[in-house]
């Protein structure tokens, strides 16, 4: 069965009505489930709690939300434009690149959880619209990085699956951190 079989009218995160094939609905449903589990870890947290590192990791709930949002935006851009022209040499990054990378995992003192969640919602809505419309077979070469095979490509479909996996993985991290803060957990 191809992507256009058995279409139906659905609504994306931003409220846009669109005709969607089952594969796209499934991808959006999976994204939605894992995003919601991640968001649930923030329920009732203060900004200070959202910055709290409750394990030996440098991660915090707010920092994870910030990281997942920016990572999703980067991969959504990849699906449209391919790897950025200013590709970072991750085998030997400079101090400023490393500092910016680590800051992407922290909710800074001048950021609020509300702001980071609003940015995540904006990015999620844009990604959902992209998932509803993009050619899922479109592929681009992956950026050069020690964790990607040289010359490898990734299709939009595979990139969306990666966003789902990244969100699910970090939802689990956030749940552990949240439980360490006050005993609350997303499930169970």
First and last CA, distance = 37 Å
What profile does the largest beta sheet have? 2 strands, antiparallel
Portion of residues within helices: 40-55%
Estimate the global geometry from the Cα principal axes.
globular
- Low-confidence spans: 1-6
Count of individual beta strands: 4
The main sheet orders its strands as 1-2
Q: Taking Cα atoms only, what radius of gyration do you get, to the nearest Å?
A: 18 Å
Task: List the helices and strands in order.
Answer: EEHHHHHEEH
Average pLDDT over all residues: 89
Please state roughly what percent of the residues sit in beta strands, choosing from under 5%, 5-15%, 15-25%, 25-35%, 35-45% or over 45%: 5-15%
Instruction: Please tally the helical runs, counting DSSP H or I stretches of 4 or more residues.
Output: 6
Class derived from helix and strand content: mainly alpha
Please characterize this protein's 3D structure.
With 188 residues, the protein is mainly alpha-helical. It has 6 helices and 4 strands. The strands form 2 sheets. A two-stranded antiparallel sheet has the order 1-2. Helix 3 runs antiparallel to helix 6. The longest helix has 27 residues. It is globular, with a radius of gyration of 18 Å. It starts with 7 loop residues before the first strand and ends in a 6-residue tail after the last helix. The N terminus is likely disordered.
